[in-house]
Amino acid sequence: MPSQSGQKNAVSLVIAVYNSAAYLEFILTSLERQSMDAFEVIVADDGSGPEIGALIERMKSSVRYPIMHLWQDDSGFRKNVMLNKAIAAARTDYLIFIDGDCLPHREFLRDHSTHRAKDAILCGRRVNLSRQLTERISLDLIRSGAYDRLSFPMLVDGLLARSSNIEDGVRITNHLIRTLLHRNEARILGCNFSVEKSLLEKINGFNEDYRAPGIGEDTDIAFRLSLIGVRLIPLRYLAILYHLYHPPTPASADNKKIFERALQLRQARCLNGLAKHESAGR
Q: Radius of gyration (Cα) for the chain, nearest Å?
């Protein structure tokens, strides 16, 4: 498939994955329903087994968007390495990041693309689906548009406190109403944010010293971008994303120490980051 880089407002969607081919198939199927066409998909694969590669090869010829599969050996958690490789490989100047356990709404990419702003990070939210609702998801339901709106089962599940952040599944296009409803400061989630590629290059991308989930793929990147004057803009009630159930991941004490050092040093550009992957690609 041709590059999307020459199309107006084209974007690169980076999907961070580790195994779970079933969830990735849900995502790739949902992307067929996106309301915009100018996008490429980069699957940043941190050492998954052969099922992920086989799925992508099977789907490449049937979907309307280009898919790039980047893979590395499984040597422990190296998500930030794969995210940097995805940045280096991206063929557009605007990147959207999600995780491989998140199902995007039909307007997800368009919302990120049309609300992009210079020197800014767009910070989306997510609806956390329960185990029960996640187990009901099927390819047919996705193709039917069932996740283009909040459903009655989702509302009931939220009232029962099994699913959470159900209100973040409400899409509101009126800017004034969104502003009135959401007065809190923007907060970045690693599974739903977007930013100009050039800004990530300025800070040398993601810090690869982080070798466990949490902080390194969102909080750290937002802090270092803020040091060069980048604003965090909330995208709540737009760019709807459904987070599929999995057991909670514990926070890493090592990550906290790395971030505490970053706060002390206040250096926007990390040492162990993107540049080496860009050099390797030349």
A: 18
Q: Do 150 and 240 contact (CB within 8 A), yes or no?
A: no
Closest CA to 238 of 120, 41, 105: 105
Judge residue 66's burial from the number of C-beta atoms within 10 Å of its C-beta, 0-12 exposed, 13-18 middle, 19 or more buried: middle
Judged by DSSP in three states, 174 sits in coil
Q: Does residue 252 register a pLDDT over 60? A: yes
Q: Which of 256, 217, 235 is CA-nearest to residue 98?
A: 217
Burial class (CB in 10 A: 0-12, 13-18, 19+), 93: middle
Phi, psi of 231 (to 5 degrees): -90, 150
Single pTM value for the model: 0.94
* DSSP classification of residue 247: P
The string of DSSP codes covering 34-74 is -S---EEEEEEESS--HHHHHHHHHHHTTSSS-EEEEE---
Q: What is the DSSP string of 104-129?
A: EPTTHHHHHHHT--TTEEEE---EE-
Model confidence over 64-115: pLDDT tens digits?
Answer: 999 999 999 999 999 999 999 999 999 999 999 999 999 999 999 999 999 9
Q: Is 44 left (phi over 0), alpha (psi -120 to 50) or beta?
A: beta
Describe the crossing of helices 50-60 and 21-31 by its angle, rounded to 10 degrees: 20
- What does the alpha-carbon distance between residue 217 and residue 254 come to, in Å, rounded to a whole number? 14
> Tens of pLDDT along 171-191?
999 888 888 887 667 889 888
Query: Residue 3: its pLDDT value, please?
Result: 41
Query: How many other CB atoms sit within 10 Å of the CB of residue 21?
Result: 18
Judged against a pLDDT cut of 60, whether residue 6 lies above it is answered with: no
